[in-house]
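Before the break, one more example. Copy the sequence into your notebook; we will annotate it together after we see the structure.
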Amino acid sequence: MLALFATVMPVVLLLCGLALDVGLLELKSLQLQNAADAAALGAQLEAERGTNNWLAQGQADAALNGFTSGVGNATVAIVQQPSSGAYAGDYDALQATVTQSVSTIFMGAFTGSNVTLSAQAVALLTPCVYLTGTGLLQTYSLEVLNGSLIGNSCPINVNTSMNIQAAGQIAVDAINVVGAAVSSSNPGFVYPTPVSNVRAFSDPLASTTSPSFSGSCDHTGLSLTNVTTTLNPGTYCQGMTFTGSTVTLNPGLYIITGGANWSGSTVTGAGVTLFFTEGGGGGYGQFKMHLFSTVNLSAPNDSSSGGIPGILIFADRNWVHTDAQDFYCSNSTFHGDGIWYLTNAGLYIASCGTFQGTNYFGIVADNILTAGTIVYPTNNYSNVTTGNPFRPLGGLVQ
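Here is what the structure looks like once it is written out:
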């Protein structure tokens, strides 16, 4: 009996030791994956803020999860546009790889060395511009003539095709085109090379609750000429016209029917959402900023004022469009944080100098045509309490 025990006991101990090592390696693999996920997401969020600190931030997030690069046989590597894996070559991808050499209790006696484990995660930058190309009779969803579309950590998604003329340029983090990336025979500067035939994307703000026209009007046919005044949130029926005026919009939600026509005016306001719809005797209309207007408006960062966090311009999803762009800036300037949400309407930007936000500026539209203007979409939603509204279409993917 003792002889049998002496024979069996080493085998039992070996099996127990192997089981212990396997469990240890499984736990370590799980910890490595958590650290890789955190590193990829941390780097992505920092990159979207437009800083150059995404590598350091990703490594810091890995350290918070127990793996500091260069310490304890661990390495944390993060690259943009990975060279391998499912997202190899994607300009909007950040790939984190966390590796550690692990000492085992029993397996080392057989292998003679430590076991090296590795985990990998990929996060995609959240696009700033979505062009649906579903309604208007435009040849292209994106057309850049003698202007520029420049985005920092800001990919764009195009549902149909694009046209860049010789004097136009695009410089963003990624250009994803559902169809063929068609351009003119003499295209301007485009970076990076558009990726064609990607899968179709859906409305990124489909889950956002839309305001609605209640049936009553606070103002009807408002028309201001050569005045200085302050307006309050409410329902403005049959148009909002400013001519040669200086207007301040108090924070909140403005429901506008019949469109708006701002010419030669200065319009400012923070914490504002403008919702364009029909009702009260006013149709959908158009929204025009022209004749050397200066517009500086920013969306709400929270819902305390009654506006929609992150959204500056909201066109009714049932918008009945024409063959032309219904929202446009011409010979004016626009500056302000916020998303222009125009799923069934086009945006025309011509001779507007710069068209941009300070922290975040996004566009969802049927199409964009820009000429003589530099459009700067940006992706830093860190001051919006609800976060980046486009987040469901970005973030961790592997």
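Helices lie at 2-48, 54-64, 108-111. The mean pLDDT is 84. Try to locate both features in your own notes.
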